[in-house]
Amino acid sequence: MNADAMQTTAPIQTSSCAAHRSHKSHLYPIDAFDSPHPSDNSRFQPSPPINPVNPDKSALLPDKCPINFRYAGDKSRYTPDKIPVPRFPPLFAFSAFFRIFSDETFELPRHFRHIPLPMPARRVLTLARTMKTIFFRVQLLIAAAGLMALAGCSKQPSTPAGNTDGGAAAPAAKPAGKKLTVGFSQVGAESDWRVAESKSVKDEAAKRGIDLKFSDAQGKQENQFKAISSFIAQGVDGIILAPKVETGWDQVLKDAKAAKIPVILVDRGIDVKDDSLYATLIASDFVSEGRMAAEWLAKKTGGKANIIELEGTPGAAPAKDRKAGFAEGIKGYPDMKIIAAQSGDFETGKGKEVMETLLQKFGGTVNAVYAHNDNMALGAIEAIKAAGKKPGVDITIVSIDGVKSAFTAMVAGDLNCTVECNPLLGQMAFDALDKSIKGDKLPKKTVVQDKVYDQTVAKDVIGSRQY
User: Fold this and answer.
1) pLDDT tens string 18-35
2) What angle do CA 417, 418, 421 make, to 5 degrees?
3) Alpha carbon of 192 to those of 130, 195, 447, 467: distances in Å?
4) Phi, psi of 212 (to 5 degrees)
5) Is the pTM of this model over 0.70?
6) I need a labelling partner for 13 at 20 to 30 A (CA). Which of 73, 123, 295, 405 fits?
């Protein structure tokens, strides 16, 4: 058969690509593009020219027809030498991009993977796969964040963002049944009162099953800074602080607040610019204690006395307030005069040393001693005895704390009066800490009520003293 005959008998191309896309019976799952073998006229008839006027430029050649179905016949015939590179019109680009992005199992058919694709096709396929990877990773991150949020909500009840009383911001509530860990920074063990306070906190922690981290600062504020920083680093649930002095606490307590760790102050207050740095203060009214001591002494001496005042640690709240309260109490008695005042640092030994020195100078005129705590009073008693005088008779002595050793001295006749300052603050401190962790409102100060005890009742109550 010659060429003219072949041209005469060639089949008429009447079916379009759109027509073949409707042959549902011959479809596999849709891929990016396929082109059936051009010799398979039983299943495929290429499209006529799109623009008959200019067929050279507008004709959509049969071997370039981009169709969206896979031929269902023998795919072994699809080899690179028989499959021409298809065109890549915009509609096909969008279709391929959408299907790759939405179908995670999409890949080009095995026989088409090494066909050199046009650059637009490569770019669309690469972009689609890249965006699809990012999309699914973002989905996983969102799902993980949602699960974490749900888990957090199921474990922690909502807490108020702040405290209307100006207290520290409420920390997250501790999951029920989990053991609390609390740090306790104590000034030291310089007095019987301080030892009793430490024992009260330790006993209450053991009673409640709380893991207590105890730190004895040995009378140094810098050691308390280190202890609090260590508590924060350990992630404790709360901190109980008995501060050495009033000032210098701003930075370390800011660190505790930033870590959402509530701080409970016990027995001594602090001077900070922001009182939300601590949740509450549980302490006696030191000014009132000094006033009560002055009123008792004024009554005992008939309003006439030359007084040596043994002061506590300089800068400590009890020392400042007890001095102020005592001065206020004797203001109405012009014949009650403080002839000397010096710090004994709340310690028995230092109280004795200071009293020995002052007796050498004022031994002939002094007839009363006011000590800011019982331990310094006990040291003064030793110094008075060493000087050949009778304490409690020749020199009237009044002090503050109400420790058991003071009652023993009263029974012996050496000490005349003590004003109670209750050191058993463990229960109140942990009650306040528990409320703070739960987000409950707390007053900025809880005042412990104190009493005055003198020699007339000492023998009757000494057996009931717990400290």
Assistant:
1) 444 444 434 334 344 444
2) 165
3) 74, 5, 21, 8
4) -100, 125
5) no
6) 73
